[in-house]
Amino acid sequence: MNSDLSNPRIVLESSKDAPRVCCGTWIENGQYYVFQISGGPKPQNDLWIVRENHGLFRGKPIRLTNGPISLSNPTSAGNSDKLFAVGELSRGQLVKFDRVSRSFMPFLGGISAMDVSFSNDGRWAAYVRYPEKTLWKSKTDGSEAFQITKPPLAVFQPHWSPGGTEIGFLGQMTGKPWKAYVVDAGGGVPRELKPDDRNDQGVPTWAPDGRSILFGELLYRKPDTEMAVHIIERGGRRETILSGSEGKWSPRWSPDGRYIVAQSPNGERLFFVRVPHQALERNSSVSQHLRPNLVARQQVHLLPRQHETPL
Fold this sequence. Notes:
1 helix
């Protein structure tokens, strides 16, 4: 707006990729305005810049930074061309629980990673490096580490195919919808399961025979009643909607292939379907953790956190 508080103008409207705009400062004697955007698909804050409007020349916001360091609270350095901001780089440590010592110990050297998945033969681990969001694999002793994907594709929750030749995962290109991907375990170009679908997709998981892949949809993208569970056959690429899956999400196949489990959008109910009957039934109240190995025994034994038996 003008100095007399007249003529307010929108610099950048909130959107799915830029939900929160905050904390700006003028630089270069008021010619440019620098601000931060947070809360989008990436975990970090990024800095943007826009030029002050002059006559017919309206400024368009331009991204200054794109991670991995999170930058916030930008401020100018007087009349110089320098800009200062608070920088933060989040790190983590991969650990495993040791039953003998009853304590957590570093796993794979304690690397900064998340979303670990093991191949069926137990020889390989797939994981996502954090905060880079890149997909890696290695032997379970940490040897032969190999990077499979590269930015700008962000990767979440990888899952090995039953034969150990492919890895499915949820991924997102910057500014694009979330998609279910499959990539060869030895590397290569990740492939979208439904490249013609413009909607956000959920985490893909494999049928025990490897012939089909199951995935749901992301929360808050559409009314809950319109959400559904999808099954895609690998060979013919035929897609079916799981009967009775309306309003369900986060589906998983049981290890023996006899059941599919899914959650209600609020996470309070667990539903299961006996394959191939394909009719979801409500079974139990649940915590936030799905345990398909228990569902495969035809009973659900999921207890609130405060009632869980300690390891």
